[in-house]
Write a structure and sequence with these properties.
The complex is a heterodimer of chains A (125) and B (285). Chain A is an alpha+beta fold and 125 residues long. Chain A folds into 2 domains: 68 residues, no CATH class; 48 residues, no CATH class. Chain A contains 3 helices and 5 strands. Chain A has a 3-stranded antiparallel β-sheet with strand order 2-1-5, with no helix packed on it. In chain A, strands 3-4 form a two-stranded antiparallel sheet. Chain B contains no helices and 21 strands. In chain B, strands 10, 12, 15, 16, 17, 18, 20 and 21 form an 8-stranded mixed β-sheet that branches. The model of chain B has no long low-confidence stretch (mean pLDDT 91). The chains are: A alpha+beta (125), B mainly beta (285). At the A-B interface, strand 2, helix 1, helix 3 and strand 3 of A face strand 5, strand 10, strand 11, strand 13 and strand 19 of B.
């Protein structure tokens, strides 16, 4: 069944064509989301990361990137790995007691049926 | 020859010839780690009980068959059975329902002591992958590890991320992947920019492999980014197919991720659900 993750908007089949389970996990924040979080002051850098970010920003001002190339700030943000708030991760935590079922790592905001016409796995030739 | 000269022989007596002797205080435990759907596993065999008292009848060989329907998330499913005192003559773990392929259903049989849920493993009897056609014999010292064999060949359809977001696929808990191919189609919006996708593989936190496509991907196209073993970096400008090589023997541990990181990605750009081919083994936890 096609599902949509409410945390990240990703669409996936929870059972693959070979009948095996699929375990969705949200992607980290994208560069655009990181920039928005910086503006909204919801992202806190470590001291070292803040210094690197400030240096990249200053370098972009001093020497603006050529058209069609990435800025130094973007290059810095590409290297960050920041989980989104309320991340969903359906991968299991193995139970310590084998008689009990496994639980998923993080439910996030949950899932809902994917909108009709969602084209998971459909690729043009 | 007269009747008197015939040597009287005793009636043949059944004796245990198997080294798998159970004192009556031990049990046999079947543990299955499974990823395939609709699988039922059966522990079957023959058991010869000991004669308890001199005036008991000669023991008879007993058949047994105990079934287990394992979970499909690679976690351990177990069944423990008391067998009494005697010898395990022979037996096997067989798939009685479902069609797991090599690398999808791993069985471990042990001799354990204890009761209720407090069992202590004493010795291993057999271990290895089972399929619809391949059983695991209990007698004959068959011991294979989780990472033995060629693994299960799997073609997986991943998650289609939201607009402007990147692909991120995670190797499931209890699995290990070897990467063969990964296709990620990027549908670019009308916003003018040069997008340059990069494929990264990490251990869940730190990136240990990355490769960039050698092409600026422009607006209003569907770019077929195909990462494969054994291909050179190429660009088909007619069909917008971009091929990029992967490293050989690229192993991904459980929790490791395959991700795109796309320079210049725009808010209206969207990746389709990726399709990828991996070899998969179970790593029991």
């Amino acid at each position: 069944m096609k599902q949509q993750c409410i945390s990240c908007g990703g669409i996936f089949d929870d059972v693959q064509r070979d009948g095996m389970q699929y375990f969705h996990a949200c992607p980290p924040l994208s560069v655009a989301e990181l920039k928005a979080a910086i503006v909204a002051k919801t992202l806190t850098f470590t001291a070292a990361a803040q210094a690197a970010y400030d240096a990249a920003k200053a370098a972009d001002v001093a020497s603006p990137p050529a058209a069609g190339t990435s800025s130094r700030v973007d290059a810095f943000l590409f290297g960050l790995n920041v989980d989104r708030p309320n991340k969903r991760d359906e991968n299991i935590v193995p139970p310590t007691d084998a008689s009990k079922p496994a639980t998923i790592k993080s439910a996030g905001k949950g899932v809902q049926p994917a909108p009709a016409g969602s084209d998971v796995g459909a690729t043009a030739v | 020859m007269t009747d008197a000269s015939i040597l009287p022989l005793p009636t043949p007596t059944l004796e245990g010839v198997s080294p798998l002797y159970f004192t009556g205080e031990e049990s046999i435990r079947l543990t299955v780690f499974n990823a395939a759907a609709g699988v039922t596993v059966s522990l079957t065999g023959r058991f010869l009980p000991v004669r308890q008292r001199a005036d008991d009848n000669e023991p008879r060989v007993q058949m047994f068959a105990k079934t287990l329907t394992p979970a499909t998330d690679r976690s351990a499913s177990t069944r423990t059975e008391q067998v009494g005192e005697g010898w395990l003559l022979d037996g096997a773990v067989v798939v009685t329902a479902g069609t797991p392929t090599d690398g999808q259903c791993f069985a471990l049989v042990e001799l354990v002591r204890g009761s209720q849920n407090a069992f202590q493993a004493v010795s291993a009897i057999a271990s290895g992958y089972i399929t619809a056609k391949q059983r695991l014999p209990l007698v004959g010292d068959k011991f294979a590890g989780f990472l033995d064999g060629g693994g299960a060949l799997r073609s997986i359809t991943g998650s289609a991320p939201g607009a402007g977001l990147e692909i991120s696929e995670t190797c499931p808990t209890g699995a290990r992947w070897a990467m063969i191919a990964f296709e990620a189609d990027l549908v670019t919006s009308a916003a003018a920019a040069n997008r340059v996708p990069q494929l990264t593989i990490d251990d869940g936190v730190n990136v240990f492999f990355r490769v960039s496509v050698n092409q600026n991907e422009t607006a209003s196209q569907t770019w077929r980014n195909s990462f494969q073993l054994g291909v050179p970096q190429t660009f088909d400008g007619t069909r917008f197919v971009v091929t990029t090589p992967l490293g050989c023997d690229l192993m991904i541990p459980a929790g490791g991720r395959i991700r795109t990181v796309t320079a210049g990605i725009q808010a209206g750009d969207a990746y389709n659900a990726p399709q990828y081919l991996v070899r998969e083994w179970i790593e029991g936890q």
